[in-house]
Design goal:
hydrolase; globular; TRYPSIN_SER; protease; about 250 residues; Thrombin, subunit H; six-stranded antiparallel beta barrel; 15 strands
Length: about 250
């Protein structure tokens, strides 16, 4: 590994602003989320993402720009000897996405890596769904973000949190007129949530990708009865596969 890469791995910073966080999660079992990626600009983590193909990462559309993609990570400050780094060379935002200032719908974006990843126990794509997950399905999310209070430092190691899918009717009652069939809601238990900045991170249910962290409450994270809102990936499998095949 070149010295410049070692330096990037060992001297990493986490911006204290503009982050989507795993709120009140716990440290993931090391390398148990081999599809998890971190999207970096310089030394700052900007968004999460999920590896869906050896050369493609899926993230939220509102995570715009070009990134250094870090895969196979557990600790962001220490060398795990499983890391792989790639640059993004091309991106495709869903054509119907109108921006977070509108309604957050179709909040997904594909990033093509400069070269394919090397498949290992720590770097492996996550399967796309063949059907939508029903209400009550147990799932989990993962990411690097604050584990307790928004003003506390972000954890160095990847965090995981279990939660369940709630009905869109329940979610619509919390966010009237804002939740569509292209979104899926999960969580709502007090003190457990995703928050700003791990945007694009995976909602994994039964070993497949069912959602991407998209949006939620504008207030403090983890409020009782307020679920997080995710892009419902089962509605976009055809588009994802078409983009990958044609590019």
């Amino acid at each position: 590994m070149r010295p410049s890469i070692l330096l990037l791995l060992c001297v990493v910073g986490l911006s204290q602003a503009d982050k989507e966080k795993i709120f009140n999660g716990a440290e993931c079992v090391k390398n148990s989320q081999p599809w998890q990626v971190g999207l970096f600009r310089g030394k700052y983590l900007r968004c999460g993402g999920v590896l869906v193909d050896r050369k493609w990462v899926l993230t939220a559309a509102h995570c715009g720009g070009r990134y250094v993609v870090r895969l196979g990570e557990h600790s962001l400050s220490k060398l795990d000897w499983t890391e792989q780094l790639r640059l993004t060379t091309f991106s495709m935002t869903h054509p119907s996405y109108q921006g977070a200032h509108r309604n957050h719908e179709h909040d997904l974006r594909l990033l093509r890596l400069g070269r394919p990843v090397r498949l290992t126990h720590a770097v492996r794509p996550l399967a796309l769904p063949t059907s939508c997950a029903p209400m009550g399905t147990r799932c989990h999310i993962s990411g690097w973000g604050t584990t307790n209070k928004p003003w506390e430092p972000f954890p160095d190691r990847l965090q995981c949190l279990n939660l369940s899918i709630v009905s869109n009717g329940t979610c619509q009652a919390v966010f009237p007129g804002r939740v569509t069939e292209n979104m899926v809601c999960a969580g709502g238990e007090a003190g457990k949530d995703a928050c700003q900045g791990d945007s694009g991170g995976p909602l994994v249910c039964g070993g497949v990708l069912q959602g991407l962290v998209s949006w939620g409450s504008v207030g403090p994270c983890g409020q009782k009865g307020i679920p997080g809102v995710y892009t419902r990936i089962c509605k976009y499998v055809g588009w994802i596969r078409t983009v990958i095949r044609n590019n």
